Amino acid sequence: MSRQPYTVEQVADLLGLHVKTVRGYVRDGRLRATRIGRRYRVAREDLEAFTGQPVEPPAAETAGTAARSRRVEVSCVVQVDAIGVEETMRLSNTLIALATGGTHDDGRLRVETIYDEERASLKIIILGGAESGAEILRVITTLAGERA
């Protein structure tokens, strides 16, 4: 069990109070705290004495990484060479429409495109959930796949 002292912000969250209220309690001497640098820290024992009951530690403190929800994210850059301006516009618009519309596995998907006309090269940047990213990659392969 962690014995880390709480920040004023954590105390405010635990008690459902505003941060300024907690700071006022500390300044008035109602809530015992230690000043470290420019910030206050409140020991669990002092917080329990203040509330008169045991304090439930934040979920992250009790369960570590188990309290966090697992996410799998993708970030990749796809380069499409030998592509013209019109095909770039069509592909870019399709990908951006797919990213902004519809539902995605984690609600976040971002697609950006950069076209170098001199080299006839398109770079596509994909950021988001793994399933959504895989779907975007399938669309790119279908629409701009290698041509013989």
TrEMBL record:
Membrane-traversing stretches: none
Stored InterPro entries: DNA-bd_dom_put_sf (IPR009061), HTH_17 (IPR041657), SinI_DNA-bd (IPR010093)
Coiled-coil regions listed in the entry: none
Top-level lineage group: Bacteria
Ranges of residues in domain Helix-turn-helix: 6-50
Name under which the protein is recorded: Helix-turn-helix domain-containing protein
Organism for this UniProt entry: Streptosporangium jomthongense
